[in-house]
Amino acid sequence: MHYNLCLIGFGNVARSLVRLLERKSDLLKSKYSVTYSITGIATGRHGYAVNPNGLDARKALELVETGQSINSISNLQSPITNSPYAVNRQDAMSPSFFTPFTLLLAFLAPWR
Questions:
Q1: Is the Cβ–Cβ distance between 41 and 49 less than 8 Å?
Q2: What is the secondary structure of 57-102 as a DSSP string?
């Protein structure tokens, strides 16, 4: 079974989880038939990244651990406008608009 994972927050616990999943991915696949893709990461400090086909988890770890933004690994570079959760441009420019929750809603909206 394949799982698409979206991480809200990418602090110590989430990064440790990703490192563990990466380390155990062969075992998960061979013993349990479990595969996964990390399709979204939203953080308060390092931006967000979304790719329905899967993000490069190692690159995300590297960027965050060197204090850089993860926006560059996303294939979604602008806010979703065809979503029922879309808002006007002025609201979207507010620093508090892109909270992990609003990003999760925007990310999930096309797949409902």
A1: yes
A2: HHHHHHHHHTT--SGGG-S--S--SSSTT---HHHHTSTTT--HHH
Q: Beta-carbon neighbour count of residue 22 at 10 Å?
A: 14
Q: Give the pLDDT confidence of 2-39 residue by residue, as tens digits.
A: 889 999 889 889 999 999 999 999 999 999 999 999 99
DSSP 108: H
Residue type, 45: R
Name the nearest CA neighbour of 43 among 107, 109, 99: 99
Domain spans in the chain, listed from the N-terminal domain onward: 2-111
CA separation for the pair 45, 99 (Å, rounded): 10
- Measured in degrees and rounded to the nearest 5, phi and psi for residue 25 equal -60, -40
Hey, which residues does 49 pair with through a beta bridge?
41
Amino acid at 59: K
Work out whether strand 2-8 and strand 48-50 pair parallel, antiparallel, or are unpaired.
unpaired
